Amino acid sequence: MLKDQQVGAVLPAADIARARGFYRDKLGLEPDNPDAEDNLQYTCGGGTRFLLYQTPNAGTAKNTQIGWMVDDLPAAVAELRANGIVFEEYDFPGLKTEDGIATTPDGSSAAWFLDTEGNILSLNHMA
């Protein structure tokens, strides 16, 4: 029933105005509903969408909450760094980043960063 349906992410924001500025100024995204005050809806590639909504629960998840697929991960990381994004460094069994990028044995790679609300976001490149 769901395998052919588009999916979208839902992200919490403690301060929706602060989040709007981050997604606009750092990621280059504008909301589809610019006049909204308690939620922001964004459309990205292929018609995929995500929603940011106001809640005091923001920043409590310790996992990746949304990720973008990119063709050139090092270039995307460099572009976001130029916008002030700081990438996370991880060193876990089976996952270690080097200069913010982790590469898996199958050749896939990813990089993670936080938004202003404490949400963990990622850039991903599949091998």
Notable traits:
127 residues, 2,3-Dihydroxybiphenyl 1,2-Dioxygenase, domain 1, six-stranded mixed beta sheet, 16% helix, 35% strand, VOC_core
Descriptive report:
This protein has 127 residues and is of the alpha+beta class. The protein has one domain (8-125): 2,3-Dihydroxybiphenyl 1,2-Dioxygenase, domain 1 (Roll), CATH 3.10.180. Helices cover 16% and strands 35% of the residues. It has helices spanning 16-25, 73-82; strands at residues 8-13, 39-43, 49-54, 64-69, 91-92, 95-98, 101-103, 109-114, 120-125. The strands form two sheets. Strands 4-9-8-7-6-5 form a six-stranded mixed beta sheet. A three-stranded mixed beta sheet has the order 1-3-2. Strand 2 (39-43) and strand 3 (49-54) form a beta hairpin. The relative contact order is 0.22. The mean pLDDT is 95.
